Amino acid sequence: MMRFIFFCLLAYLVYRLISFWQRLGRPASSGSPQTPPVRSGNMVKDEVCQTYFPQENALREIIDGEERFFCSPECRRKCLEERNKSR
Question: Which of 27, 46, 50, 63 has the largest count of CB atoms under 10 Å?
């Protein structure tokens, strides 16, 4: 039993030593965490599914001279199909 504990301890020490050497080879970080991309905070509404989402994530389409926003290609397709049916 003592041999097993000794080998486990030895394996752990080897693991720690290897991870220490790997960290030495890496370039030093700048010290500041990466900042998330700046977002405008504007929320828009998808007319098809009635959900609100950030404008940066929207699919845009100009319909009848008005810019409309969609949350997915499916909602965009449904809106365009409805528009073509109503013509």
Answer: 46
